[in-house]
Amino acid sequence: MLLETLDLLRCPFCGTRLSVVDNAALDRGPERIESGVLGCECCAFPIVAGIPVLIAGDATRDAMHALEAGRRDDALYRLLGLDAARLDAFRELISGDRPPTYRDLLPVLCLDAEADYMLHRYSDPTCLLVEALLDAVGCRGRALDLCGGCGHLTRILLRQPACIDAVVADVHFWKLWLASRILAPDCEPICCDANSPLPFADERFSTVLLSDAFPYIWHKRLLAGEMRRVAEADGAILMPHLHSAHGENYSAGDTLSPAAYRDLFAPLAPRLFDDRGLLTALLDQRVVDLDNPVSPADCGDTPAITLVATRDTRLYRRHDAPDRRDATGVLVVNPLYRVDYRDGISRLTLTFPTPEYEDEFAFAKRYLPASVTVNGDLRGALTPTGGDARYAELRRRRVLLDLPRDYC
After folding, report:
1. Is the pTM of this model over 0.90?
2. Which CATH number fits the domain 120-320, given the four candidates 3.40.50.300, 3.20.20.450, 3.40.50.150, 1.10.760.10?
């Protein structure tokens, strides 16, 4: 955790400032705190592996006691939630001859089908839409990726030219650990519960992004008010892929009607957009069309909508979607493709991890071809220059992805 982040943080319970406790748990450099304890006027919180954990619970308390006893590894293992078998596997991975990849670590840290979703996040239609939305709207200062998980979208925020820094907040410590080590190492991870008041001072974020997660939050009214509170006066609140109560969704969560979502952000006069319309315009016209909002009545049985709330009405227009040819990480074949290389030719076959995944993300077939044949060996990382147009169409169609190093 950067020392300057202390000015941003507030206790989620009493609202007072946090300060660093000078005790045996403290591992502090000139700019960062790797481990330690933060205190406020009501309680204390640990910093483990550079991540402040602003949650009250047994695991948090145990981790703090382990830090104070000098057992920093035990504090990390407790917050990662590892049982004996997974702890052995984790230790083996991190002590190996090479750094473990995101793909290596997911089966150890994630125990359910969400692992497939998180591995292939950069392929799915929601990520395609969010990436285009962020490229269109941009970020003019500090960004907050709320319920940001492993930092897939945080990485997209950080590449915006005017983004100063990005905070990724999530209730799952292990996701933030992966975000800070692999997906978005320049981010500032904060472990907190979005069902409680957010642990941030007022009006600190120019962009507040909450993608995919809002229907799973129980205290929606509280969170909506908190998002408005922490956003700057002319900032933007972006909420892609809100599951509608009037449509069919996999793992729908506790959905609301489009009108109810809109009313939660009424002070900012939010606008609603049908995700199907946004994606169709993006694929067919290469535009992000924020000039044609829909009314709640017009949403019909659409499965999901996008909400944009900002006083900066200049954002509400048609934005051209850029074709990115540079790479911030490594350019590789999408993990959804099986690559067969023979006689100087790579044959790529689209292969979904499960029938359920294929059904849920069927829209991806609009841009992911079933098979591709390409001259050359595509089994490893590719290194085209920024002006190299050979792979432009494959990147546009998500056959090739710009992924973080050590992703897969």
Report:
1. yes
2. 3.40.50.150
